[in-house]
Write the structure tokens for this entry.
Amino acid sequence: MFDVIITGPGSSAVPVRCYQQKDGNLLAEFMPSMIGTYKIEVVRNCREIRGSPYFCQVFDASKVKVDNMTNTTIPVNDNISFKILRKDAGFAELDVTVRSPLGQDLPLVMKQVNQDTDIIELCPPLPGKYSFNITYGGQKIADSPVTFHVIEGGAARAWGTGLSRALIGTVAHFNVSCVGLCPPDRPMVQISGPPGVPHVNASIVPKKQDQYEVSYTPIRVGMYDVTITCSGKHISGSPFRVYVVSVDNVKVVGDNLPTRVLMTSNIPYKMLLDLSEAGPGEVTGECSGPQGSTVPVNIQQDMPEAAQIIVTPKAPGPHTLSLFYAGFPLPFSPINALAEASNGGVRLILTGKGLASAICNQTAEFNIDGSQAGPGVPEVTLTGMKNEIKVNLLHIGDSVYKATYTAMTPGAYLLNVMWSDRQVKGCPLKVTVTAMCDASKVICSGEGLGVGTVGKHIRSFIDTRAAGPGELSAHCVGPHKVAYCELYDHGDGTFTLNVKPQEAGRHTLTVKYGGVDVPGSPFILRICGAADASKVRVFGPGIQHGVLATFQSRFICDTRGAGAGQLSVRVRGPKGAFRVEMQRGSQKDRMIMCKYDPTEPGDYRVEVKWAGELVPGSPFSVMIFDTQEELNRWLQGNQSPTSDIYGSVAYSTGYAHITP
């Protein structure tokens, strides 16, 4: 006979379940409620078995945090350094790996400051993105991966929270470094806000040699662009997209929050937030339960103007719910709550479409069956962000009621049902009210629904005239960033949609009418990087001097990493002596082979442009001779093929272009 005794931190007794297996073994299970060391004693016939007691370390990877991340843009050969805080996370193995821009794992330095703090250091040898993956006890922590962007030395850079988020009416800060620039220069900062908002003044204060602190105060919520230039050129990352929000405008829909919120263990507690006047941002949250336990917080933000918070306490006792918007704490956060033991709730059955959705100006209904709930009558409230909708109840018989309501304004509402002053399990419910329209009749067209370029507006046309009155919305998300979307209303039921992507890669554009996807939505957009002629490489025998009989005129233009653009090749040489040709292996191939097959000796000039800009090394001067002796003589004495040997030569120009 086996006995299993488990003692948790503080000598607390831990419940354990034992199951007899078919093979004669005993399976023991327990659920730890807090981090720390657990003592496991296995006893057989009143005597401990060999090896008992065993000790188990319980940890919580969600408690591990990354600190000192104010500057994520680092010059080459400058130290990358950040802290990992393990306080209250328990004991487990910390593992950190870093991937270089070439896809290789690099060695790094891990220093232990104290029992709860480690410092990670790396000296990056190359420019590019360095990604640190962090696991604790084999589990990925919330802040992983940690990404740093390493730039060439001597390049201007900027960092700080003021480049990504800011509070309305509050001073935002960021730093700019111009160390190593030649000649030295002071940064120029321009901050532009949403349409109709004047430019925001930026204060630039020198802190130390070639380093500056920039501050500004946004006056309205919305998306701002911060443009930073040095020596007339944009620094890396410019323009920066900043989300300006107002946490004071985040409101709780329904009744005001009491001093202490009452919850019930194992029953979801729901809260609806009105974000319509708070600006662009996302709601995040965390909840701690009794004895430091972590309670998951589920946040549903299906619409940009509303978010629903769902917390399900696992055990009775005090809870603390902390909520943030765009990374800023909300004024009413943290929320103190007390979870009471579950009594099973009211045995009430709710059925009907009106519990989840409704259409403006149309009657929605649902049924309330209280035949198994004991004596009582239902009380129903339906509360929106701006108003409260009256719910009519019709008693059908045997404690069964029919509830009807008519919503006049689209949006998110909370439906709460009480029975004899007790809340029905699962309430309040979220009800989505949409406008009376037919999204299937909306027509979207234009090049902006397929391809585009980073930093440039891509345009599409939306026709809602046949769909009836409704609300049109557009949202575009890239691999890591949200693209700026602007809808221009022509006043006749047609709209122009301008999308400005901030990064290259696959983007998803969602267009909804009355809360419903229009035909084709979500659209997949292929966004290419902005054209950068400096990234094009040209190589091959065709741009080197040679002898006509053995001359190979082919050369390769490698446009990988150069963004979107058109490759143009222009060759100037003896009239009628060549023809420029270009070809590639496939439609998506970025390696393009060019050749011009000269038939006469002479002085050739090969000019290669990408998106209208000369590539590095262009134009290339190519001298072609009849004999090797003439080539050697020219290399020694710089004699031209157009000298007296060849007489007077007429010249012409050949062109070719291709878009990868």
